[in-house]
Design a protein that fits this description.
Blueprint (H helix, E strand, L loop, with lengths): L16 E6 L3 H6 L5 H17 L4 E6 L10 H7 L4 E4 L8 H9 L4 E6 L2 H14 L3 E5 L8 H13 L3 E3 L1 H9 L2 H15 L1 H24 L9
Parallel strand pairs: 1-2, 1-4, 2-3, 4-5, 5-6
């Protein structure tokens, strides 16, 4: 039996993609409340640190930083440096030649896009890039809108245009690929930015430590057959 293959989609790897993080600015992150602002910031930073962990080219876009949108989140500046931020006059990131050339200069064919707001700052360049032949991933939980309805409508629009709608943890897992090689990135990033995983990791480490201690004290208990 022939294996079915999708000619339009291949896996993300650290060598074939770049991250485009658009307008993650202080003002926007506080008044776009489709997702809790603290959770949104946590997701944005988890996503950004994924790029750093795998040494993936990352472009930061900003718009109207002198106005209510505010400056780029300081944590992102600390991660990537001020020089990674491109301020633009255009609403659509893809219409700004400097921004677009920054993407092209990476030589990557896959774009992992997140931004504030999803309906504009993600959707406009994502759809335009797909039309130019890029494979585009929209990271929904590292993005936000005025309300959940806007996000729902935008996700449908993106999917219909051929954009892969995804989350930051799914991107991390796809990039990691092999837990024997990249398990440390999964463990570190999820422990820091996913509370449930942090609890599970703490429990595992505690149990493992106690198990070694008990084994030294009593040895390995014999297996007993159930009658």
């Amino acid at each position: 039996m022939n294996e079915l293959k999708n000619p339009f989609r291949t896996e993300l790897t650290p060598d074939n993609c770049c991250f485009v993080m658009i307008d993650h600015q202080v003002g926007l992150s506080t008044f776009l409340t489709s997702i809790d602002p603290a959770l949104l910031k946590n997701n944005i930073l988890g996503h950004a640190k994924t790029a750093k962990a795998f040494d993936i080219p990352t472009i930061l876009g900003t718009s109207w930083p002198q106005g209510p949108n505010g400056p780029t989140l300081p944590e992102l500046i600390e991660l990537f440096g001020e020089e990674s931020v491109i301020d633009r006059p255009y609403v659509n990131f893809w219409n700004d030649e400097t921004s677009k050339q920054a993407v092209k200069s990476t030589g990557r064919t896959k774009l992992v896009i997140s931004g504030l707001a999803t309906e504009v700052c993600v959707a406009f360049p994502a759809i335009a890039a797909v039309q130019e032949g890029y494979e585009v991933y929209a990271v929904i939980d590292a993005s936000a809108d005025w309300n959940p309805l806007v996000t729902e409508v935008t996700m449908k629009r993106l999917a219909m245009a051929g954009v892969v709608v995804t989350t930051w943890v799914a991107v991390l897992a796809e990039l990691a690929n092999n837990t024997q090689i990249n398990g440390m990135h999964i463990a570190n990033l999820l422990s820091e930015h996913m509370g449930q995983y942090s609890v599970a990791m703490s429990n595992y480490l505690g149990v493992a430590k106690n198990a070694d201690m008990m084994k030294e004290q009593i040895g390995t208990p014999p297996l007993q057959a159930h009658l």
